[in-house]
Design brief:
This protein has 490 residues and is mostly helical. Helices cover 77% and strands 0% of the residues. It is built from 22 helices and no strands.
Length: 490
Amino acid sequence: MNTVRTLFHVYQANAEMPTPKKGLKGSVYLSFGLIAVFCIMLPCCLIVGYMTYIMSMALMVESNTMNALLAELHIISAFSMIFSMLVVFNVLFFSSDREYMVTLPMSHLQLLAAKFWHTYVAESIMEFMILFSMFIGHFAAAAENYGPWPVLGPIGIVSALIGTMVTPLLPLAYCAILSLILMAALKKVRNIKVFYHVSTLLLLLFVALFLLSFRGMGGITVNNYMDSLSNGDNLFLRICNILFFTVPLLGEAIRSQNLLSLLLYLLGNAAVTAIMLLLGRLLYQEGLYTAGALGTTKKKTDADKLKLNSTSIFLSYLKKELKVLIRTRAYASNCFYINLLWPVGILILFSLGKNNENIQRFLQLYREGYPRAALILLLIVILVSFISSALNSLSSTAFTREGSHVDIIKYIPVPYETQMYAKAFVSLLITLPALLLTVIIAGYYIGLSILWCLYYCLLALAALLLFPLLSIALNPEYSGYNFSISPNNP
């Protein structure tokens, strides 16, 4: 246990680069940090909490259920499992420290445990905040319907606090279990590409499951979704109650102040984690050997066939960034392809929701010139622009994508400003087309004029520009390398 704790602290210290505390840089870093917290993170949490409040209020009035909270917890768990799959796989088997760590006097099980807990903490910080907002929204709705007692009883509050910290554990444990099993299968397949399609397959399965839950309801609408949750016959909810079996136990502990349900919730998470560690004892060491063998396979390239074209420094660095994003599977799925969710999502929303009364009512109010409808559309464009940039992590990982080669950027003959602008422009180049397409699709269904559509496109561009520059300025490596905006920087 001491070895695991020590390794965990080592990984934590290695992940947190030193940041400026004093002087002008310290003040700028603190200012940008406060802007990120109060203008981006807290508004997102408030929106999630308010949505939980509205959904919980509606279902409590109709059927006295917690299905609204359970459905949101399942969606969070599903997304956590989908987008953490490649992260867990790469951390366990293809991290740059693999060759060094396996030679140290420790068991492979201790290494697995330390890497898993470090990933759990690192990947769940924002999720903790979202979950806390969900529970606040649920408690607010329950207190308004039933009064503060017994809704705000001690067991319910303790259950919510524990659920905030423990809910992401089960999806990550599932990811680790799948990684161990599939890595064992790769021993014979000898093709790592097979694994990288698993996260895509998981995404398609969860989306298909969510869409199938509307079967026989007459369309994909908010009203149909709420009715299915109220009746308890939502297919997505029923299957996720089995897959993420600890979530209903947590809901029961909160609803009925049941201490036994809370203990069973903790026991269920502990049991899955123990199964993961048991599989790790059996499979992890062999999986590391397989990863080493796969990692040594390189394609032979004839140097005479390479075409080295002269181009500008900025374009060369930009091409390098794009190649890293596209060729690295984790970056490609979590940073590149995730941008396609926005135009596809808005297309599904308007095409399948054309008979939805709420959507049609909003469109009618906007076309009639109601200020509140225009304000809502304006806020949605700004919010989606911010969230899309935050969700793909292109700018916030701009320097950490360098990995073990991060120090090299100080010595290559490329000015710091050029590197910074290239990394910022990558975020703009990848995210902006998807956002513009989203605005154009929405404008078509809403009936916006060309000028108004252009206005919202420019607004999306402005919001998108702000977030990458803010993320890079907040990046610890950026601060540590003493970058300067001045063109006279040596």
